[in-house]
# Entry
Amino acid sequence: MNEKLIKDYKSFLDECKTERECVTRIIKDAEKKGYKNITKCKKLKSGDKVYITKMNKAIALFNIGTEPIEKGMNILGAHIDSPRLDAKQNPLYEKDNITYLNTHYYGGIKKYQWTTLPLAIHGIVCKKDGTCVNIVIGESADDPVFCISDILPHLAQEQMKDKASDFIKGEDLDLIFGSGLPAKKSSEKDKKEKDKKEKDKNKKLILELLAKKYNIEEDDLSSAELEIVPAGTARDLGLDRSLILAYGQDDRSCAYTSVAAMLEVENPVFTTCCLCVDKEEIGSVGATGMASNLFENMIAEIVERTEPAYSELTVRRCLAASNMLSSDVNAAYDPMNASLFDKDNASVLGGGVAFQKYTGSRGKSGASDANPEFIAAVRKAMDDANVTYQMAELGKVDQGGGGTIAYHAAKYGMNVLDAGVAVLSMHAPWEITSKEDISQIFECYKAFLAIRIS
# Structure
């Protein structure tokens, strides 16, 4: 097991709970290894290392090889967004004597899992004068945390009759943001006068605190990106410390190890690329998602700087000739819920890299179905590098399913295979991975970047 890698990985999870934080950390690590912002490079040659960012929420690293770019690249593609709660555009409101932060959940979550947990707020507030304020509240030992309340069991008879998907409504996932003293009982006439004077009294106090500490007004929250995530650090799990319990391991377990492997590459024959995108958890939409023209625009920038004359055909040839591991996680076999899995085709914790020929749901809907020739070549590369791996599916055929960025990359005509680690409690606030799997996936990505599959 690679103890240093595990230590650095846990540090990454603690520091990078949002896409922006991931991009900032990746840039810092890449620049230490000699990578430069592509905007500072007019021309590129073999051995040059550059990165391209998009809206501070997606990033790609490129290490230029000795072979022409049109012969393709070896690509690791991961996503750096994770399920969470997002603050709405007009988030603050007071109800009786409690002030709440109104939220909208992001990605596939079990809503009930997010109640009664200590939560932190990470994000950015952008003001009209062009300045931006970075926000992290709830991670330091002396920080306050936030929480979503739930009904006590003594009064939850009606709630417990609902389906698990329904007994916590999306509109009820609002954070307790502050609390004032309740109004004293008084006559109806006095109460009306007092209500006028004390309307939103606690909310006003909260806004005063925000103004004092962050110089933020309530209107500034309409141009904010505030993500609500579990508060706390990655921890060893189990008496033998073989597992990791942490937020955001889907897909930062693969994103971190992909970047770490990429930074190990020196003087490649074929250009190597590590792509970390946004919005996978909601369908890869938007300007920073894989369904956009994001990646081909990045390749166009590389082609423009590596070739004597820019050619759209070179871009297309490069994409079509490339090979990619879609670095994303798979569901770990859960002995407590064994009926959901085809055990012979399930990935297990500690079983090494989980390769998925196809993802999708039921009849392979939304899948990228990798060619067997490509899988065989990858298998050989893993065996040559002594990497432990397993071939797996998400769950039983009719049980459900999920997708990755693989089919968005496959549209360019390249070979794509899903490769990641098994995750237990996927999409929960705290997810579980195996340290051995993290070590193996790092070795897998390094081996893949070094090979050529025609």
Q: What stands out?
A: The radius of gyration is 24 Å. The chain has ten helices and 22 strands. The CA atoms of residues 100 and 176 lie 5 Å apart.
